[in-house]
Amino acid sequence: MEMIKENTFRHVLDDDGVDPRVLRTRKLIVDGFHELLVEKDFQAISVRDITDRATINRATFYAHFVDKYALFDYVIARSFHELLRGRLTHRCGLSTENLRTLLLTVRDYLSGHLAHCTPDNQQNIHPYVIRQVHAQVHEFLVHWFKPIANDLDAAAALISWAVMGAGIHYSEDQTLEMDVEQMVTVLTQGLDGIGINLD
Amino acid sequence: MEMIKENTFRHVLDDDGVDPRVLRTRKLIVDGFHELLVEKDFQAISVRDITDRATINRATFYAHFVDKYALFDYVIARSFHELLRGRLTHRCGLSTENLRTLLLTVRDYLSGHLAHCTPDNQQNIHPYVIRQVHAQVHEFLVHWFKPIANDLDAAAALISWAVMGAGIHYSEDQTLEMDVEQMVTVLTQGLDGIGINLD
DNA sequence: CCATATATGTTGGATAAGCAACAGATTTGA
DNA sequence: TCAAATCTGTTGCTTATCCAACATATATGG
After folding, report:
1. DSSP calls for A92-160
2. In sequence order, what are the residues at sequence separation of 6 or more whose Cβ sits closer than 8 angstroms to the Cβ of residue A197?
């Protein structure tokens, strides 16, 4: 029980070949944490609360996560990742449809998160959520860019933050209508400008 | 992982002091087994089916139960035990009220079991159910008798089977009305005959 | 203010769960 | 009928989880 934390963030969803006990324990922790998040504020949740709820030993928790903040990051990253994967039709490819899905998923995930949380949690946690969601968006973009060219780091950074910006904007004010097609056009035209043609 | 099976049947509900991993694994096995029971016949369920559903290793199953029949016995004994404990108001005492509760609980448990199962399972499993439920009823009676006198084995055997007989009879034909008070009277009078006065 | 909890991480040794491989029994189906 | 496949228990070794104990930090309250 040494290298469990090691793989936790390489790829958030590579459960293949992992010891079944590790997968079970992770799920118990995550489920217990989710239960607690709707009951009380993040700041008020102790590691002991989590392990009691998960029916695992406290030492085992620390074998999986360095602290509750790492657990939180993991939960956000994984749930967003799963939501996005479930919505993508063209798996692993750069296309206008996938860009559209990306924009909509970020917005929906963020507004869903705001809807679930207590007001206090909204204030304190939102920045962490954004950071983790962005990390995932960025990872997807890099993955999509890779077959096209290697040195597109700047483009990935720019577009990932553009997508996040749109998502944040529209998730915070639900009265606004999101003009997805216009945004997709901006992104595709922009990419076209640096020699990347979609579809 | 040697003596797990050891304590399994001493008292069906003494979870105190047992290793948490054992309790979790047991629960996973029992839950998976329950799921499978409503899907297919008991005879068609393999140990591998159970362990796959429970997400545990097959070898771990054999550390807990000698075979699927032992698991079945355990499930019956435990669920009946829990149902009865939940209904008893006068905990651990011999009284007309507890005798009444015993009669009704046996009938309800048996008819509930018949209602859940596939016709095939009803035929094949019913004898095992009766055997295990009787073992529990007998254990409760012995426990209630103990403060009164020591050599009441015959009385416990007789009354436990009388209770079972009533339960079986009325669970198999739901149209009959169970005259509980008459039966309780029979039992209390009978006990009175050997010098045991209730209430 | 200080004493008494309570929370956080960490460690070493004990124990349950995982796994692969095995032999033998039973089922399947060609 | 016979061979291939599947199921059943069992075993030795590996690995993850448990637990108790510890040092430290942060409340909590009298």
Report:
1. T---HHHHHHHHHHHHHHHHHHHHHS-HHHHHHHHHHHHHHHHHHHHHHHHHHHTTT-S--HHHHHHHH
2. A191
**B32-41 pLDDT per residue, tens:** 999 998 888 8
Rounded Cα gap, residues B74 and B81, in angstroms? 10
What would the pLDDT profile of B39-51 be if each residue is shown by its tens digit?
A: 888 888 999 999 9
Mutate: best of B1, B15, B24, B25, partner A, most A CBs <10 A: B24
- Measure A128 CA to nearest chain B CA, in Å: 33
- The Å distance, CA of A62 to C1' of C1, is 35
Q: Residue B53: CB partners within 8 Å, gap ≥ 6? A: B32, B33, B35, B36
Tokens of A158: 């720019």
Q: Least CB-CB distance to A20: which of B20, B23, B55?
A: B55
CA–CA separation, A97 and A89 (whole Å): 8
C14: residue with closest CA to C1': B1
Q: Which nucleotide is nearest to B62 (CA to C1')?
A: D9
Identify nearest nucleotide to residue A69 by CA to C1′ distance: C8
- A174-181: which pairs have CB atoms within 8 A and are 24 or more residues apart? A174/A111, A178/A103, A178/A104, A178/A107, A180/A100, A180/A103, A180/A104, A181/A100
Q: What tens-digit pLDDT sequence spans chain A (199 residues)?
A: 666 775 545 566 678 889 999 999 999 999 999 999 888 888 889 999 999 999 999 999 999 999 999 999 999 999 999 999 999 986 668 899 999 999 999 999 998 887 776 666 666 667 788 888 999 999 999 999 988 877 788 888 999 999 998 988 888 777 777 888 999 999 999 898 888 888 7
